[in-house]
Write a structure and sequence with these properties.
The structure holds two protein chains of two kinds. By secondary structure, chain A is α+β, with helices and mostly antiparallel strands. Chain A contains 13 helices and twelve strands. Chain A is elongated, with a radius of gyration of 33 Å. The model of chain A has no long low-confidence stretch (mean pLDDT 84). By secondary structure, chain B is of the alpha/beta class. Classes of the chains: A alpha+beta, B alpha/beta.
Chain lengths: 397, 214
């Protein structure tokens, strides 16, 4: 290394602006990284394919004393469902078909389990995570079931620990176990088998194939159903105000937590997008300032650069001596960023723990790679512009 | 052995008014390494222009310049860099030193390109010109004659086949001029190199084999 060359090219420079620019780069990258990390940590919560999905709602009518005494009904008539379907904010509406007969399941050791229960049916395309086995046709002895995750949790954490002998079972084990299914209706009693084939976040129920329910209601139970107690809605946005007003006006009750989660979710999404945009903008502006800084540095050293070139220094030699200087400078923001990032993450977690006590914020590898990616980009941008400015400056008359 | 050929070169600034009796402009001449040339050039005939064309600092001319058979106008910046490291050196009329740096740094910045001299040899050369005591002084603070000697020392700190002198001794007295000439002759002999000395007047500084008029 030619120390004299370093002295001539870098000795006269003032670094104040450069330091400020690099600090701005630190801020921009940190904002981007933290936003990205928040997004990755809340990705599951924010995605559309789970319990927090914003596109599906279950509604029913509110239960009052009049219902208790059988004076009014909480069920939906077919016309009412038609009415809901026609609402602007609703994309689709299907009633839950319920069992018109008694259902119980039974299982010997190690479960020693017997329970009366209910089953419901909705069209396949309204269920999330439908496995292929979730089909039934007349003659099949086994009825596949999709259990809601919420019920599974109740079973594992509410029911199992209190009932001696019923083990906590992982989903995979539960899915490979078959239960006896006892159907008792006004027409006859039937024994069948049943097995859990999947778990759903969207529909909080015990779902069986619609074909099975229609057959069983007709052949075992009281026949086809005319009014329905629950309706599943597919909507644009569950948090939509007009939709809520429509439901309120009709006296329908939706699962409110989903409405709240929905509106909170879109706010978080908006917040993260804005934050990410701001971070990106700072980085872009900083890169632009960095390019201007390079221009300034080159123009300050123009006389020396021309002299060195005329003495016989190659353009590439001059370029690398300036370029390495810039690369070394980029290491400082990189070190600062990696030093601050874990603390920032920890303090954000601490802040959020007030609302979400169980939250563990992971620093994702993608997030850790982001600062390097941005600085590599910045080095590439610098290389391109440095080369250009240097050439222009040295070869000009 | 190197060769520079000027084929009907006419610089753009003097396109209209160059002298028809010039031995250089518009003619075909060649400079061979090992031969010393004197170019006598009254004011305004393009003395510095010639130095700069030969050294590749300007390219605004008609005709062809051939360096060792290669057309100089086709050269990339890197070709000139290599040429200036190995084949040609120049003592500028306006010296072109980096004023904020010491005399030694000014010499070393050239010398480092090829590590032609050790620092000891640089000091020895400076002693021969009587400027060794200046080496660690900033070029800003030393006289013009002293700077001219530093500039000569810088030009000599590389291998070369041609040394262009553009009024190289203009600020030196007779005694110091003689010392400088002795050093240049010494190094040129070792390099089997040529001097191309451009001067306002005729002189007998070197053992010229060819004298040209601009």
């Amino acid at each position: 290394m030619n120390k004299l060359l370093v002295k001539i090219l870098w000795g006269k420079q003032s670094y104040f602006q450069l330091v400020l620019t690099l600090l701005a780069l630190v801020v921009g990258v940190l904002v981007m990284a933290i936003t990205f990390n928040l997004y990755l940590n809340f990705k599951e919560v924010l995605s559309d394919n789970d319990a927090f999905s914003n596109n599906y709602l279950v509604i029913n009518k509110s239960v009052g004393y009049l219902n208790t005494f059988g004076l009014t009904s909480t069920s939906f008539k077919a016309e009412e469902i038609e009415d809901i379907k026609n609402s602007k904010k609703v994309k689709g509406a299907v009633p839950f078909i319920a069992n018109q007969f008694d259902v119980a399941i039974r299982k010997g050791a190690p479960f020693n389990f017997y329970s009366e229960l209910f089953v419901e049916g909705v069209p396949r395309n309204f269920i999330d995570n439908v496995p292929n086995e979730f089909r039934w046709q007349e003659g099949d002895a086994e009825v596949p079931v999709i259990l809601s995750n919420e019920m599974y949790n109740l079973l594992s954490f509410g029911y199992s620990p209190t009932k001696t002998g019923f083990p906590q079972v992982p989903k995979s084990a539960l899915m490979s176990t078959d239960f006896d299914l006892e159907l008792r209706g006004v027409q006859k009693d039937v024994k069948m088998k049943t097995r859990i084939v999947g778990f759903s976040d969207r529909v909080n129920s015990i779902l069986v194939p619609l074909e099975f329910l229609k057959w069983a209601n007709k052949n075992i139970g009281r026949g086809a159903q005319n009014d329905f107690s629950r309706v599943l809605l597919e909507v644009e946005d569950a948090a939509d105000h007009q939709l809520q007003e429509f439901l309120d006006a009709k006296g329908y009750v939706a699962n409110k937590d989903k409405l709240l989660a929905g509106s909170g979710k879109s706010k978080i999404k908006l917040f993260l997008s804005v934050l990410g945009l701001i971070g990106g903008l700072i980085v872009i502006l900083t890169l632009n300032t960095l390019v201007m800084n390079i221009q300034l540095l080159i123009s300050k050293a123009k006389a020396e650069l021309k002299m060195l070139f005329s003495l016989g220094y190659r353009l590439n030699t001059l370029f690398s001596y300036m370029f390495y200087g810039f690369v070394v400078m980029q290491l400082f923001p990189l070190i600062i960023i990696y030093a601050i990032l874990p603390f920032l993450n920890a303090s954000i977690q601490q802040g959020l723990n007030e609302f979400m006590p169980n939250l563990q914020m992971t620093l994702f590898t993608e997030v850790l790679a982001l600062p390097i990616a941005v600085l590599v980009l910045s080095v590439l941008v610098m290389a391109v512009f440095l080369k250009r400015f240097l050439r222009l400056s040295v070869l000009s008359d | 052995m190197s060769e520079i050929v000027l084929n009907k070169i006419i610089p753009h600034p003097i396109r209209e008014n160059f002298s028809p009796i010039s031995d250089v402009w518009g003619k075909e001449i060649s400079f061979q390494s090992g031969t010393h040339y004197h170019v006598c050039a009254p004011s305004g005939t393009g003395k510095t222009t010639l130095s700069h064309i030969l050294y590749g600092l300007r390219h605004d001319y008609d005709g062809t310049l051939l360096n060792n058979g290669k057309v100089a106008k086709d050269w990339k910046p890197d070709d000139w860099s290599v040429y200036r490291q190995q084949t040609i050196s120049i003592i500028y009329q306006d010296l072109k030193l980096l004023e904020e740096y010491t005399a030694l740094e000014n010499i070393q910045i050239k010398n480092r390109l090829t590590n032609f001299f050790s620092e000891k040899e640089i000091v020895e050369n400076a002693e021969k010109l009587g400027v060794s005591y200046l080496l660690n002084k900033s070029c800003k603070t030393i006289s013009r004659g002293e700077r001219q000697r530093i500039s000569i020392l810088r030009a000599l700190s590389q291998p070369f086949h041609f040394l262009i002198l553009d009024e190289a001794f203009s600020h030196l007295d007779e005694g110091n001029t003689k010392k400088a000439i002795a050093l240049i002759n010494d190094i040129c002999d070792k390099n089997k190199a040529s001097v191309i000395s451009c001067n306002l007047f005729e002189d007998a500084h070197f053992n010229y084999q060819q004298k040209l008029k601009l």
